[in-house]
Amino acid sequence: MSIVIEARDVEFSFGQTPALRGASVAVEAGEILAVMGPSGSGKSTLLHCLAGILVPDSGEILFDGARVHAMAETARSSLRRDRFGFVFQFGQLVPELTAVENVALPLLLSGVHRTQALAKARAWFARLGLDGLEQRRSGELSGGQAQRVALARGLVAEPQVLFADEPTGALDSLTGEQVMDLLVGAAREQGTTVILVTHEPRIAAYADREVMVRDGRVNAPDRIAS
Amino acid sequence: MIRFGLRLAVAGGREALTRLVVIAAAVAIGSGLLLTTLAGVNAVDAQLTRYASIYPQTSTAGAADPLWWSTRDDFFHGRQILRIDVAATGSTAPTPVGIPTTPGPGEFYVSPALRELLAAHPADQLSDRYPGRDLGTVGPAGLTSPDTLLAIIGGTPDSVGKLPNARQVSDIGDKPALPETTMNLILGVIAGGLLFPVLIFIGTATRLSAARREQRFAAMRLVGATPRQISIVAAVEATTAAVAGTAVGFGLFYAFRDPLAGIPFTGMPFFPSDMSLGPLDALLVAFGVPAGAAVAAQVSLRRVRISPLGVTRRVTPRAPGAYRLIPMVLGVAVLFFAIGFRPATSDGQAAVFLPGLLLIMAGLVFAGPWLTMVGARVMARYANRPATLIAARRLADNPKAGFRAISGIMLALFVTSVAVGVITTIVDNRGPAPIGSTDAGTVTTVFDETMPSVPDPLVAELRAISGVRSATAIRENPNIMDGGEVGVIACVDLPSAYGRCADGANVIEVPFGLSRWRESASPATVWPAASFTLDELQRLPVGAMVVGTDGSAAAVERVRTVLEVAFPTFWVGPNVPGDFESDFADTLRGWEQLANVIIVASLALGGCSLAVSVIGGLTERRRPFSLLRLSGAPVRVLRRVVALESAVPMLAVAAVAIGMGLLAAHLFLRAQMDYTLVAPQPRFYAIVVVGLAACLGVIASTLPLLERITGPETARSE
Fold it and tell me: Within an 8 Å CB–CB cutoff, is residue B718 touching chain A?
């Protein structure tokens, strides 16, 4: 399999505080990679650098051969919008939109017509066990439901890479596992590469491979799933 | 708890201090504007009171010797000159306000503005009208405005007592002769147009950063604070900022008072001392704003239930019902009813129109949320862009919140549209004679006491003035009761510019100005024959003198001066038709200018309120918005959300308010004057556009904040 996204010797500091000190990691197409590490180790920073949210102080980020770190903000935004998907820990749904509109949002942002976008978004509700919740607002959804809606939103535009930053961090273990089952199932079905940041081994176990971030460096692969 | 609230407000870290400063700054601007509005209302009141005191009521009670007083109107270049003739009847007679002593016969005082005119123009155009000794300048206490043209001229009791409108006055006070209801209506328009937006702004300002505050309160609830304790902390925080802001607001008001007084809001500038605050005003603002802020904080807490688990409010509030349209529809119906059924008395008319207008005003504010919701739902249904969809959903979700910030704009624009619509129509129907027309050059003086004839030397003197084309004495028609014109002249004396005689007539009936009321002088007019011979005509008394000129200001003013000196007992000075009309139109334009000021000020204020609510909305949604940006949503999408959420309702509200205002003006004009509404001049729309641009500018000033608070670091730090 070919490498779809890669970080090479990435360094990044928040002011005087170094977060990444020469981190390198490569992810293959369709692979599910878990990035683990204790709090403050730099795992979220690595994810943000890979996704083109942060620009490394030095080192390279390559996506499909393109030099992400050298792109202008507009190009990186466009990359994130069209080629990447995101699932965060909480609070990512726009409160005034209904669940189905939230899911359709990436498509609308990419210029898809509203009718088509909503139709495509609705299809995800049955897939993720959210039938009947299409018209609910974020405040009317449980944590698990909101996270499944966020997952649908992350995948609806069929991204090449899905970045999931502690996607189950705000959920109980049972609900977290349900969300992960859906995430992994949908990603495999679509052939989406997933980069999953978590500090929970139980969640990391869903991945094909784990890397450990410590003190801003990525350790060698611990495990390759069969 | 109060001490704890104070500590949280002033020593709660950088964020708390920033919040305090921002709210205090917003309250400072709001209370500064509130003080300016109150002082402006007082200034208008003072101006009207002094204007009314120029026309005192007869008062002979008391021990003082009465003062003979006669106020008459004169004109110069279309501006009104107030001429007050006075004569003391004894040593204890009161002295007119603004001068040290009552002028004696052959003495006079003039206002500073009139003194400038006297110095700037030849004597035969103006100062010959005031023969005698110039005693000095009338002080501000005797003037409506620094621009007032006023002369106080001394005479003998005998001469002044015979003047038109002469009355004996033994007490000169500040008793306004204007009906109190008129004053209240005028001041009510100002207050309604400006105070409401100011109060809305202050109320909105105190809710700045509400979302962050609520998060903090939730954390306090989690560790055991009771709802009552939270209420106290919230009230203390809001009040602290409001007290600081109000204090700064007083400073801002006094710093800008003098330059503000010089702006002719009513068509005339104010004296700086007129822009004063009464003790009640000062107390009202000093205590009312902080108290209001405390109440607003309580209300905002009531709107959101703060539980230990956080704020529970992201549920769709109950949608406003269509019943909210009822008061507005009723108001329009009342005005329609007034067209068919117009009460005979002015009190009766006021009893119909005022409730109708008030119903529409209240109805607009009441119906606003429903209209916002309907508009937003339509927008959401057809939205194809994410920004439009988010903005429409937010507005449809909570239309009351969306409308609150702009309700002031709606009221102000409605009030001013009614005023501008009515004023434009009246000015259009009764405006001054066009420059260069025969009317514009026709000077007419109507004698208070008729005379057997006009002396020939006077006629010769008038005809010798450069630019004079004709001088015609008009005799009184004794058959006026038969329905004819008030004057009669020999056919040969009729200048051709004013018409021609009916076939075979030697003597014709004419109006005193040689043109009929609201008609222009025309050579084509045919005047009917009068039933007098030329001999009989010569025996009739002269009632008026009409002098035709080329319309040049110098000719008109020279003629006027000659006539005034020759016939000093005029009630209204010799005038051209444009004098009355331009004076009247100037007064109306003064009010129109005030309306324009209200438009711009209320829109700018509305912009500030909107900006505050935009900031509140952004703070509330900083996380989903910043995560959207992380996910690749361009910042322009978020900018568009903000712009649509605020600009669309504002523009819609502006359109509805102006439309309703002009409709109400039309109904009023139809019912009251049989006029059809004349569309306001482009200037009005230009001012609305300037105001809206100012409003949008204020909203745009919040956009950098959007970029800042939705940056990647926000998502990381939360």
Answer: yes
